[in-house]
Each structure stands twice: as C-alpha cells, then as structure tokens.
Queue: 2 jobs
Job 1
Amino acid sequence: MLVTGSTEPVTSFYCFIVNELEKALLELERKKKPVVPIRQLQSGKEAYVWLVEANKTNELFALKVYRDLEMRSFRTQRHYLEDRYVGAQDKIRRAIKTGNKIGRAFIQHTWVMREHYFLKKLASQTEYLPKLIVPLENGALLEYFGTQEQAAPRLSDVSLPKSLHQQLIELLLLQIELYLANGIVHGDFSAFNILWWEGRPIVIDFPQAIDVRESKRVPTLLKRDIRNMFSYFRIRDESMVEQIANELLESYSLPTMEYTLL
Ligand SMILES: Nc1ncnc2c1ncn2[C@@H]1O[C@H](COP(=O)(O)OP(=O)(O)OP(=O)(O)O)[C@@H](O)[C@H]1O
Ligand SMILES: [Mg+2]
C-alpha cells in the first residue's frame, strides 16, 4: 500500500495512523471546525496526538486520536467486566469476555465517550484541564498547551524547584478531591499525565477514569492516584496515602455496590 506522495511501501500500522488521522480531519470538516495537521506530538500508549491549526483563525489545538484496540493492550478488559454498566448487559459481557469484534467495539466506543464525558463534566469547575473543543468518534479536538515549536512538557520531564512542591501537591490533591466530589476517579493520575505549562499543571488523559457509581475499584484507584502523584515529589509514605484517601472517601460517601464479579 502507498501513502500519497510517497513511492515507498508502508506498513499497515502506518496506514492505520494515517487513516485515523484522515477520518478525524474529515469529521472536523463536517463539524465546521476544519484544521490542518502541523506535526505529531509525543504519542502515548493509547492514542496519537497531533498539533493542528484551525484553517481560519490559526489557533492551535491538540487532536487526539485513539489507537485501534487491536494495537492497544487489552489490559482493561477484566476491569470492564467488573464495572457495573457492563455487568447489566449479558450479551456485551459475553462479547468482552471472548474478546470478539462486538466486545472490542464496545470497549473502544466507551473508552472514547468516557474521556468526553469526564472532561465536559469537570470543565466548568477547574481550569487545570484541557477544554474539550470538539468530541470525535474516535478521539477529541482539545485545547493545546505549548507553542508552535514545542508542546508543553509533562511534569515527569520537568524538575521543579523544591520551593514549589508543597503548593503544587496541595493543588493536585485539590484536583483529586474535586474529581471525587463529582463522582470521578482519574485512575491514571501521575506526572506522565500532567502537563506543566506557564507555571501551572494541566491534567490530561481521562478515558480510563471511573465513575464511582460503576466500579468497586474506587478505593484502590484513588490510593494509586495519590501514591503516583506523591512519587513525583519523592514522597513515599504509604500511611499518608492511606490517611488522605480514607479521609476523602469518608467525605464523599460512595454508593453501595450491589453486583457480583465474574
Ligand atoms: N492538550 C494537549 N496539549 C499538549 N500536549 C498534549 C495534549 N494532550 C496530550 N498531549 C501530549 O500527548 C501525549 C499523549 O497524550 P495522552 O496522555 O492523552 O495519551 P495516551 O496515549 O492516552 O497516554 P498514555 O500513554 O498515558 O496512555 C501526552 O503525554 C502529551 O505529551
Ligand atoms: Mg497519557
């Protein structure tokens, strides 16, 4: 298979990326928000992210497009089965268990929708998130942090002076608390999913976030989020993690879970 303008054969993997980007660009055109890609940014395990520019205004955005499930790890499969909203649907449950096409499509779809849902829900309550500009079938057009030349670094790539640590820890704990007050646990909160831009943190990457009504993993994930955040600041104090998590869990009482695991 050939990509336009190239005489070299390319792998199906590369074709997939180009196809998914093209699909997203067409969808943005249909949704009256045409953009042109400038370059690919650092890609994560789950998605490709491009720096794009609006045709008319030259405004910059981040275009996030998810990898196909075949190319992503299927690590979340078991957790989907544990989650309540899947538990109610026997057919889907069986499909996910066997890993067939329907099950994979369901996971892919919910994965994308969840990021939209959580970003929208939190948008009016915190400025430490990217704005969801346009939700897409397989991704999202997001507010971009960075310049034309350089995307904002992740916190994991930045060494901050110690004088900033305490203030930043408090701000990040407040974000975790705000999510929980909204019935959300990020589930992958760490210096790898926090950008550092103009002296403030921006938390990204929400598709794995959970709604506290649907999962019994809330205490575990909440503790992991706090622990991972602390580890960036070289704080390894499990009793403090436990104490903070327990206090938060007590303040925001979780609904009773009434379902059985497989
Ligand atoms: N809004 C944004 N502005 C600037 N850069 C961004 C933005 N969103 C994502 N990025 C860049 O793209 C990378 C991948 O984004 P993201 O973490 O959302 O994807 P992912 O594939 O789900 O990641 P992971 O590997 O954590 O699963 C980020 O680490 C960051 O460098
Ligand atoms: Mg990420």
Job 2
Amino acid sequence: MNIPFLSFEETNRQIKSEMMQAIEKCVDSKWYVLGNEVKQFEEAYAKYSTTQFAVGVANGLDALHLSLLALGIKRGDEVIVPSNTYIATVLAISYTGARPVFVEPDLRTYNIDPDKIEEKITPKTKAIMPVHLYGQACEMDKIMAIASQHGLYIVEDNAQAHGASFKDRLTGSFGDINATSFYPGKNLGALGDAGGITTNSEVLYMKCLSLRNYGSNKKYYNEVIGFNSRLDEVQAAILSVKLNYINSWTTQRIQLSNWYIDRLSACSDLILPATASGATHVYHLFTVRTDKRDTLQQALHKSGIGTLIHYPVPPHLQEAYRHLQYKKGDFPIAEEISNTTLSLPLFIGMTENQVNEVCDVITSFYR
Ligand SMILES: Cc1ncc(COP(=O)(O)O)c(C=O)c1O
C-alpha cells in the first residue's frame, strides 16, 4: 500500500490538455506580464469570490503584505492574528513594522476564538486577521461585530479556504481587503507561486494594483515605493482553467472527509475536526488530534501512508520571533494543537478504498 499525502496525478489527468492549450495561448500571445490572462482571471476570481475587485499577485504572503500596506498598517500599530496560524500571516504583519498580537484559537474548530479577541484590543490595534485554517470558515459574524464596534479593519487570510462560507457568505468577501494563496497544493492552486487579493473598495483595489507593480499605475511614474509582485500570465491562465473545477473538487474533498469521519468516529482516542454552526469546511486539510500523534504518524509511515503536521511549532515559539520574548506555555491552545495535530492524506482522485485503508491502519493502531 502506498498512499501519498498529496497527489496531482488525477487533477493533471483531468485537465492537462486544457492547461497545455492555455500555456500555448500565452506563448502565442507574445505578451507575458500583466496582459489579458491576468485581467481575465482577476475578473473571474472576483466574480467567484462575490467581490467587486481582485488583484493577482506573486504569492499568498505578498497578498497579505500588500493588503496590510494598502490599509496603511505601519510601525507602531498592532494587528490581531490567531496564535496557531501558518507563519506567513505573521510575517506579513512584521513586514509592515506592526506588531502581531496573538489570540488563541477555539480548540474544537482551530479557528480564532472570537470571545478572546476583545481582551487583546488596545489603542494601537488597527486590524484583525481571521485565518480560515485548514479550510473552515471562521465565525465571521462575531468577528465583524467586534471590528465594527472598535473601528478595526478586517483582513481575511483565505489561503486555505477557497469556496468556504459562513452563513452563506463566502470567505474572502467579508474583510475590508482579503488575501489568498494559489500555491500548487492549495484547493485552487497554480503550477507555481501565485496569490490574490479581493476587496469591494475601489480605493484599496487601485492601491494594490500600484503596490504590486513598483508603486505605479502609470508606466514610469511611481506614486509609492512599491514592489514587483505581479501574477504572471501563464499562472493566471492555469488558474482560469482550474477555477472551472473548484466547485466539483470541493465536493470531492467534502466527500473524502465525510468518509474519514464516518470510519473514524468510533475511535475514541482520536479527535476529529468539528465545524462551527453556520460555517462550512472545504477540507484543504483533514486533521485529527491525538496524544499519540508521533507514534501514529510512524505507524502510518510504516504502512506507506504519507502525513504532515500543520504546524509543528506555533509562531510565538519560532526562532524568528524570539525578540517578542514569548515562552512555552504562553499560548497553551496553539501549543496543544502543535503537539497533537496530524493531517491525513486528502487529494482529488483519492478513492474510498484508500480512505478505508488509512482508517484501517489507524483503527488497528489503537486496538
Ligand atoms: C494560512 C496561509 N496563509 C498564507 C500562506 C502563504 O501563501 P504562499 O505560500 O502563497 O506565500 C499560506 C500558504 O502557504 C497559508 O496556508
């Protein structure tokens, strides 16, 4: 038995010829940077996201960084972020000079606990960054209410949750400005690095167009010190092809996860993912938790089953953030998740039999 953690085999089989045609069209267009492909994808992605505007950028980290810059977040400001997020959310805050302020997640959903946000708000707080972790939408109604009461911006990190929703509204459409990643392994992924920003504000949209292109919206005239963070034509063309499949791929992810939940629910040693009321989960990752995480991972590995840990070290304990002077125990929920979480294989084309095989190894491990 050999079940990888992630495989592109089936998606490539389904759409390889469409992707090759899209690439050929780019080659033949003889226009390789900021051309029709980027424009078309931006329009399609904005429509998909139910926002007025989308901006294609080089990667998800840049999407977060440029979103914060567009809002004017700067040194001296504080930005609220979940303590168990992927490091990119925190890095983006650091790039602006602002300070990341960690709020613990809910141990059931792994998303930021809305009830713990207000105690972290100070006069310096400028924004809240909800991260729809593993593919589950955050409880956006509570978060939006807190932001509006305190006059704070919301910047969603939607890198892992294309197509998820809270109370029927899509993630990536709630915030003042929102960032996503199209890293290949994401639910909507390019064939290399790529990212995107969504917003309903024309002002923020224009700022992002400028920031990603040397701070210029008119060739050779620079209004701000910008970056080169353009989505390239070939990646945009690939993303346009894949966008047509995202809904059916999401349905498959949910089906695979339901099989996992069904087969593993009798296993009392294992904590399965829980979805908050009102939220949907698009299962970018199917994560379980167990005190025997490391030995379970070894047992799966011995049986040829790939797993990963998202994430082994929470941001406050990363060497890069030593200067914030946090220590073990400061964010016990994030630490508990890091110590116990394990992501099982889940990819388009995975079969019910493969899910059963993974579950068989897990149940015999506990027997
Ligand atoms: C939650 C989250 N935020 C941000 C990023 C950064 O995206 P990228 O790798 O495209 O820079 C990722 C993915 O890597 C992510 O999972």
